[in-house]
Amino acid sequence: MRRWIHVLLPVCFIAVVIAVAPAALAESPTPPISAGIFIPPAAMPDATQLTYARVITGSVPVFAAPTDSEPARTIEQGYVWVTLENYPVTLHKNELWYAINPNEWVQASYLQVYQPSSFMGLALSEPKTFAWVVFDTYTAPAPGQQPDSNSILLKRYMTLTFDGIEAVDGRDWYKVGPDHWVEQGMLAVIWPKPRPEGVAPQDKWIEVDLYEQTLAAYEGDRMVYATLISSGLPWWQTEQGLFKIWAKIARNKMSGRDGYPDYYFLEDVPWSMYFNRNFALHGAYWHDKFGIQHSHGCVNMSMADSRWLFDWSTPVNQTGWKLASEEEPGTWVWVHDKLSDSPAATGSIALRSTAASTSFKIGLR
Question: Taking the model in full, what pTM does it have?
Answer without folding.
Answer: 0.81
